[in-house]
């Protein structure tokens, strides 16, 4: 009974926390930065910096939770969700906004690895189903957050959106502090950190030699470059095309919703037809829809393109994660998935930076075409590399 209560509460905390986080991230952040006078390059940096926090800290925070317990790291994580949104209304300087985004990025960097590990420990026998349920709850934030944030900006301004985001985060924080996790507390001593870091290094050294895992992860990162570029610059393009912030928020909701509902279906399809063809198909869909966006200003067509991009994301993600799992040794499965996640975060952080540089020096249409080309190039390199690896004699 305690386990079920803990699981329900941590899922609920995840819902409120990620709604809060995504209310700030899309479309509010780009529009707010622009209102402070940010250039496209600076907007790209501001949007990407919270993802860079995750690149730097997700693996160490996961290791620390092994040593000091999940609850301590989760306590820090929920505070990082709940309090920073209340600071945004007082920001008038781009440097302060960049620093606040790095601070806010601690929320997912610290909370996410510990929450996933907690769920895995709560349900050792039904781990897959439990993790699937938890991640679905957190993904609801990508569905509701942009929609709520966009319409609050349109109706009442940035401050109202940020304060409401903080309220959602604080609800998650208060729920967590009423939560008693049914997870064993580690009994590690002074050498715990050395042991954990040593094992983590061994795992990643082994995975780094697995070329199939690496090429799949890099291919997935190409998709995330486009995703990050959309997160930063679709709000600005949408407003310049005559949409209001609420409609822009709905574009992200449709993208996330299409991806959310398509992933389970496409995962089953990949089990039947194979991973590689679907990864190629998904990247082509992402590139095709992405490159069309700067040529469209009608809201219904932008909705269709956003849905198409979300479907392409689902096709790639459901197959790439499965291919990484297929290609990893069982004892290195966690390291393989961790490697994929880290490389994906690097791609996600690179997208806004690259798009900002390209848009500042070229145009939206040229920038989007170049990023779409990167996805097609990644698809071609992936196809050729996988064929060569499969042709090699097995050892």
Description:
The chain has helices spanning 2-25, 28-35, 40-68, 70-82, 94-122, 127-156, 158-177, 192-208, 211-240, 245-273, 275-292, 299-327, 333-361, 364-391. The chain starts with a helix and ends with a helix. The chain has 14 helices and no strands. It is mainly α and 395 residues long.
* Helicity, as a percent range: over 70%
- Please outline the major beta sheet: none
Distance N terminus to C terminus?
48 Å
Q: Name the shape in a single word.
A: globular
Could you state the order of secondary-structure elements as H and E? HHHHHHHHHHHHHH
Evaluate the radius of gyration.
21 Å
Which residues sit in consecutive blocks of at least 5 with pLDDT less than 50? Answer: 330-336
The fraction of residues assigned to DSSP E strands is under 5%
Question: Averaged pLDDT, please?
Answer: 84
* Number of alpha- plus pi-helical segments: 14
The total of beta strands comes to 0
Would you tell me the structural class of the helices and strands?
Answer: mainly alpha
Topology:
Elements: H1 2-25, H2 28-35, H3 40-68, H4 70-82, H5 94-122, H6 127-156, H7 158-177, H8 192-208, H9 211-240, H10 245-273, H11 275-292, H12 299-327, H13 333-361, H14 364-391
Helix pairs in contact: 1-5, 1-6, 1-7, 2-3, 2-9, 3-4, 3-5, 3-8, 3-9, 3-13, 4-5, 4-7, 5-6, 6-7, 6-10, 8-13, 9-10, 9-11, 9-12, 9-13, 9-14, 10-12, 11-12, 11-14, 13-14
